[in-house]
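Re: How this chain folds, sequence and tokenised backbone to follow
How to read it: Take the token row as a discrete description of the fold.
Start of record: The labelled sequence and token lines come straight after this line.
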Amino acid sequence: MADARTRARVVIVTNPRSGGGKTARYGLVQRAEDMGAQVWMTSAEGDATSLARNAVEAGAQVLGVAGGDGTVSAVAAVAADTDRSLVVVPAGTRNHFARDLGLDLRDPGRALDALVDGEPAQVDLGVLGSRVFVNNVSFGMYADALLEPGYREDKPRAFTAVASDYVKGKQWVEARVDTPWGTVEFPQVVLISNNPYHLATPRWLGRRFSLATGRLGAIVLKRPTQAPPDLLRHLRGELRQRKRGVGPAGEGVVVWSAPGITLHGDVRHLDAGIDGEAVRLPLPVVCGIRPGALRVLLPKNRPGIPPERAVRLGTEAFGRYP
């Protein structure tokens, strides 16, 4: 990757609005161009895919992406389909995919070091029909919050607006989910992730220690049949049970991994969030995974990599689940 002619064939697609303008705040355009890359900026929501495809047609051998997870997902799909390597620059708000790759979220520009001494790695991609997801597909409270007006500007207000009915047990997902322990009808929350999330230790809760297991992760929060619980307190209780070695299918939460997961039901569509983008999906919803579908170039120095002990504990904990 150190050859100047090779770097000239790198195109980085960036969403300048992501992360409150992180591209400009961290000087990412200048830093990328100084390393021989071209930077193409999106001008409207949803055109990252077109820019990435145009870059490949123009001769780009490496694609880069700087933006939120929705932009990353769009460019990653093109990179996988065209057998291009992808450089991920964490310039969004959450940057979950970049975080789980071990990248430095405090200084997004350090990810550009991959253009000089990048280490290739193959990672999985989640698939839902023709769509690709790098993080997750969600149904329930989070998906509803995405549909609230002004979600991007005030996320706490959007969550507060939809949370009440879920907390009271008056709102749920109009679908059924088949799990290794039977079918869960009308759950409150369904989260299907590209590789399983770590649930064993609080410090690393919600991290993915591997993006190459070839399996989806699933977390289903059941609809309460008695007095409605506090959802967060209920989930914490289930996680404490898991730490003590209690089985993976508690009274309120079901957690497992599989190469494919399906939601089915009697309604025609479900509202969902795919990598933080609101969509409406026809039923049945069939999620799968493409093992090793995406080649990423990673800088050698990645301060976000969890310590080996945490990874081992997470692997052992998840080994108890199917």
